[in-house]
Each structure stands twice: as structure tokens, then as C-alpha cells.
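In response to a reviewer's request, we include the raw inputs and outputs for one of the modeled complexes. The two entities were modeled together in a single run.
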Amino acid sequence: EVQLVESGGGLVQPGRSLRLSCAASGFTFDDYAMHWVRQAPGKGLEWVSGISWNSGSIGYADSVKGRFTISRDNAKNSLYLQMNSLRAEDTALYYCANIVYGAWGQGTLVTVSS
Amino acid sequence: SYELTQPPSVSVSPGQTARITCSGDALPKKYAYWYQQKSGQAPVLVIYEDSKRPSGIPERFSGSSSGTMATLTISGAQVEDEADYYCYSTDSSGNHSGVFGTGTKVTVL
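The model returned the following C-alpha cells for the whole complex.
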């Protein structure tokens, strides 16, 4: 069974940092690009960042470029998102996803508020 | 930045056909993927690589792409198909830069 489990969300003050993790199982993790996608309350899906299977190609949405860093550890079947300089507008449910395979976690909630 | 444009809403009667469009300049060169999201749930892939249907997705869901527009068609829509639908694709930069469409609320009544 394909499974993606996110962790690391929580309440954080503006300007602070948070690191999200995603543990993958049930598929050959290092065969696929992986992504972070977020959804603010009552809003649509927003692609945040993606990373190729070997970390050789990485992309970011303009809204997070320079503040967020995506990484992966294929030996641990894990995906990460380091989020710095957080803003109120980063408040959202953050999903780890293998978009082309159709595998998503249940999300981890990040709330940025003082 | 790259954008994919969808109509905000589509309404259809049960048993009728719903068509949802997704417009983007890179679609002639890049695949479109379609996701269904019901309230409070994670998205579910219903179409990949423009027109392929994952196992377990009903045959009433189909996809096509021509030029700068991709289309998701629900033939014989059911009440349970009421949901938000998002297209997804990538830009032409080659940097694994993705984008979701603006989303379409499908109402079946």
C-alpha cells in the first residue's frame, strides 16, 4: 500500500522557521520526482516545490523562492521542506505528493501567527 | 509566472455530460493531470498524461488535450462526482516547476 505521512507542522510566529518531513512507503521512492503542495483554508491547491528523483532538478513557486528549501534522502525514503522567514500567508495544509503517480499524504497543518 | 486557467464553476444535471477546461501556454508540450478533491479530503488523481485513467477511476471520466487546452469530461455525471477539480501541469523551464489550475467547482443537481 502506497503511503505518504507528513509531520512537522504546527503553530509558529511570523519570521520563524519550521521543517516538514514526509515518510514514503509502498513504492520505489527514488524512481519519482516528489513535491510539496499546500492549500490555504478555503482556497485551491498551490504547488510549492518539486525535486527530481536524484535531487538534480529543483523548482519553487515564486511565493516561496528564497525562503523554502526542498530536499530528499532516498536512503530513508524521505522528503523534506525547510521553511524560513514564515509569513501569515504561508498558513495552509501542506501535502507531500507524488503528483504524477497520484499519491498524497493527509497533510500537516502549518499556522503562522503571533 | 506560468498559469493554468479553469472556469470557476460548472453545473450539470445527473446523467448529463460535464466538461471542464484548462488553458495554458505550455500544454502543447506538457502533459495535463486532473485531480478531484471532495471537501475535507486529499486530492484524488482521475486522469494522468492528458487522457489515461488510473485503475479504480470510473470510465465516465475521460481526458483530452489539444493545443493550449486540456479538457476533463465526465460523461453521465453522478451526484458523487460533485467536487472541486484541478488540472496540473509543468512549465517549460525543465526545473520541476509545477502549477495547479485555478480549480472548478462541479455541481451535480
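As requested, we also summarize the result in words. The two ends of chain A are 39 Å apart (CA to CA). The mean pLDDT of chain A is 97.
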